[in-house]
Write a structure and sequence with these properties.
Layout: E1 2-8, E2 11-16, E3 26-35, H1 38-46, E4 48-49, E5 52-53, E6 58-59, E7 63-71, E8 83-86, E9 128-132, E10 136-138, H2 145-148, H3 151-164, E11 171-175, H4 179-190, E12 195-200, H5 203-212, E13 216-219, H6 224-228, E14 237-242, H7 247-256, E15 257-265, H8 276-282, E16 285-288, H9 295-304, E17 314-319, H10 323-330, E18 338-342
Parallel strand pairs: 11-12, 11-14, 12-13, 14-15, 15-16, 17-18
Antiparallel strand pairs: 1-2, 1-6, 3-7, 3-9, 3-18, 4-5, 7-8, 8-10
Helix pairs in contact: 3-4, 3-9
Length: 343
Amino acid sequence: MKAVVIHAAKDLRIEDREVEALRPGQVEVAIEAGGICGSDLHYYQHGGFGAIRLREPMILGHEVAGKIKALGGGVSALAIGDRVAVSPSRPCHACEYCLTGQQHHCLNMRFYGSAMPMPHVQGAFRQRLVAEADQCYKIAEGVSINEAAMAEPFAVALHGVNRAGALTGKRVLVTGCGPIGALAIIAARAHGAREIVATDVMNTVLNKALEIGADRVINVADNPEQLSAYSVSKGYFDVQFEASGNERAVRSGLEVLRPRSTLVQLGLGGDVSIPQNTIVSKEIEMKGTFRFHEEFGLAVALINKRRVDLKPLMTGTFPMEEAITAFETAGDRSRSMKVQLSF
């Protein structure tokens, strides 16, 4: 089979790899679509992110969907020909976190396309993927394979909503309207948010935010005073989803959050300085959010039942052979939201 393999920053290759042996409880999936994630871009652009660096060649990718081609022994809930979205999360189900329902914090996690452990965990940008049957969720008739491949990033946003708590009737601020911020808007709307205001520094992504459900958008580079106006009477918003990883976004959000509100940090960034006095005086809760577990099944269910429409976030699909062009396109925020590969 062919696979998309990263060797170092800007060194992306299409290589031949062997298909893994099929074991009991597993299925072989012909991958048809795979979305390029921010972490994939970091490996391509910089050879890693933070302390996580490439130390050996690694197949990229973890946002995938395809069709089942073979079944291992004991698999009965799936059939050859089923179209499935594949969760990239493979916890051990035996460590202390798995046993207490926090599988996304598994001490022995094998998450597709991760350079965190050594040897690296090979990813899913390949023509054939052998996965555990319980990683695979059936796609409904009429749902495109490209929509199904969006289940993984949507699950990230849904986990962020889960961390925020009930959103019914809440006023929500989303800072950063890249793919995850945009999906947070969709997730918040699906969970009953009363009002959603989104901010960014680029009009192209802000226009997309309006299209998918934001009530108002603010370009904080051009009009920061429009956001500051929400700081009257100790703030306006009940929840902030911070998806930019930018210190300014965190600080400006704290200014416009109401007392006893919640800030959920979705975006990854470096060390930031925060005004502790504001957090203390307003009794603001700051929460991290990391990956997902049960939310993957919810993401597929919402897509299958047409409760959400993720199609507006799809910028384009490139054949696997044009992976470099696809990655370059995905890295240009001015013209892309979610770029996918076709296998």
